[in-house]
Amino acid sequence: MSDFKLEVDSPFPPPKPESLLEKPEEIPYPETSRKYRHYGNILKNMVKYLASLPAGEEKDALKAAVANQMKKTYLLWNKDHVEDEVILKEMKALAEGQLDLEDVSLADKKELVSKSEQNQNGFKGKKKFKKRGKKRYKKK
């Protein structure tokens, strides 16, 4: 507006006219694979973390929990049909072959769907709220 002729006291040096002609730096975008995008990045990171754990009871329990969660998220994309072999194969691929999934058994589709329909209070379906009117106090 002032063609860089305005004099202002500032703790920083004024910009040079050439700086307006320069192109800004390109923003580096994260390169993510679209192959297993239906699982989400958090679940992918969980599988990688699971592959780094030492063998034991905790790892076995986490393998089953993560596999069941993968099946549940897969069901969001494909509600009709899901095979356990596909889930285990994709879990092994995400872990880059570092997981032994021979002993992992996945929950049935009906169990996973019914668990997700229940809310935190154990009720199925939508929450029903009671109408709350004004509390009436008896006069003494």
| Largest beta-sheet characterization | none
List the helices and strands in order. HHHH
- Give the averaged pLDDT, no decimals: 81
- Count of individual helical segments: 4
β content, as a range? under 5%
- Approximate helicity band: 25-40%
Distance between the termini: 76 Å
Question: How many whole angstroms does the radius of gyration measure?
Answer: 28 Å
Poorly predicted spans:
none
Question: What best-fitting shape do the alpha-carbon axes yield?
Answer: flat
Secondary-structure-derived class: mainly alpha
Number of beta-strand segments: 0
Summarize the model shown.
With 140 residues, the protein is mainly α. It has 4 helices and no strands. It has a domain at 41-114.
Task: Describe what you observe in this structure.
By secondary structure, the chain is mostly helical. Helices cover 38% and strands 0% of the residues. It has 4 helices and no strands. The model has no long low-confidence stretch (mean pLDDT 81).
